[in-house]
Each structure stands twice: as structure tokens, then as C-alpha cells.
Specification:
Elements (H helix, E strand, L loop, with lengths): L5 E7 L6 H9 L6 E7 L6 H9 L5 E5 L6 H11 L4 E4 L5 E2 L4 H11 L3 E11 L5 E5 L5 E4 H10 L11 E4 L15 H10 L3 E13 L5 H8 L5 H10 L2 H6 L2 H11 L9 H10 L1 H29 L2
Amino acid sequence: MTAPKVSVLIPTYNYARYLPEAIESVLEQDFQDFELLIGDDCSTDNSAEVIARYAAKDERIRFKIHSANLGMVQNWNWCLSQARGEFIKFIFGDDKLFSPTAIGKMVALMESNPAISLVSTASSVIDARSAAIETRNNFQPGIRDGKKVVVQCLERPANLVGEPTLVMFRKQQAARGFDTRYRQLADLEMWFHLLEKGKFGYLGEPLCAFRRHESQQTNANRKSGKTEDESLWLLEEYFARPWLQKMATRRMLFAQIYSLRKLPAAGENPMLKEIKLALGSGWFAFFYIRHKITRPLFKLQRWVRKNRSAP
């Protein structure tokens, strides 16, 4: 059997309500050289029925209903391990592709430059009823150095690349899988891993949609309080890289100190002490004052952008 160009992976748990939209957004793509692999993590709703119904109609759909709950990141890795395509395109069970040209345009950008290790797009944020409520666009379209994107993410600090639904990457470069130590930042850690390997390609059209709703995993992670230290783990791992220490900006150093300062594990952390020394107290004071002055303006700009993109 000839391997498909793209493996579209849908890891899902109790998203029967949204799965038809996610699956149909794949089947409606202009680009058709794909397989669709669905990993259901032992859902308790009627997800299995929804998945089986679609699989019966299209031989490109493969699926597994796990007999026991693997956990979110483990299910991502199961999907990744079963993929046969050269390129990987995740879509979460509660998200969707927002344009029938999404996969084709992402493949074209990946194939235009073999140095690209990760592609992402602008996104439309949708609500529980699939109404668009916001458009997110974090970069100018084009190709940029992957390591510089890592620095940009640490400067904010934020996942500027986006959720797994927004990206495409090469399976070979992600062979080690997502790091299961992480629950909230498992995707960002993988993006850093891939961005170390090559360039970042970005498409400025909102080709993919990320859904906000009360039962999404992000809300559960934040309420649990079990993911607070993940930002510190990620910084500890990557700040040890000589290339990052060389490329680190004062803005990045300040952003990490400021964002991590209240974590219980941060107080005596030797790496944070090293970062504070590298920045210097004078620069910290400068950036702190600037942050306090500009933060209200930044919030206003975000509010304006959000409301402009709302229907």
C-alpha cells in the first residue's frame, strides 16, 4: 500500500458533539493525498458511533477506540506512532480546518523548502456553536529562522506558534514523540524541539480554527494547578542550550524572570538566579517600569483586534 503524503491525526476524548465538523473539514479538503487516523481515548459519550459511521464511508479513515484511557499526550503519541505519511497534520476533536485549501497550502510551503521543520498558520477562534469570535495572527507570512522563533516565544512569553491544530511538520523530525512530562506545554516543547532543527514557515491566512469552550482540556489543566511549573521546566531545558544563551535578548531574560517569579519552585532555582545576574538589576528595573506603562495599551490593542474580528 502506497503511503499517503499527509497523515491527519485526530486525538479525541468525549467530543462527539464536535467530531463531525472536524472530520468533514478534512474530507472537504482540495488536497486529497492523506490518511485520517482517529485515536479515541476511551470516550464515555457516543464518539465511537460517530467515528465508525464516517469510517464506513471512507477507506482513508482508520481509527482506534482505546480500551483504557491513555491520557491526552499519550494519545497524541499513539496517533503519531501509527501515522504513515511524510507530513503530520493534527486536528483536535473539538477543532476544525477553516478552509478547504488548508492542507494543500501547508504542504506546498513544506515542500518549497526542505529546511522548513514546522509550518503554522493564522487561526480563527470559534465558540461552542462554531461562530468565529477572533482571528489570531502572530507573524508576518514567510519563512524565518526557527531558533529566533523560540526566542520570540520566550520574550512574550507565549505559544506564538499555536495549538497542534494549526501546525504541520515532518514525521521523521518528530520521531521521539511529545514529552509526556508535560500536560499544558507539551505542544510548545515539541515546537521548540522542531524549531531547533530548521526553519519556521508561516501562512497569514486563518486556515485552521481553534475552539474555545468550557470543557476544553486547557481549562481542566489550569483548574488542576498541576501544570504551573511547566514553564520553568521548559526554560531549564532550553536555557542550557549554548545557542539560546547566545541569542537570548534582555527582553527575553526579563520576561522569563517576571513570568516565573511567583512560582513556588522559582525562589531558589539556580538557573533563574543565573538569568537575573545576566540581565542585571538596572535592566530589570527598566523593563519592569516599561511593562507597567505599556501593559494597559497592549490590553487595549488586543481588545480592539478581538472586537474588530468578531462578527
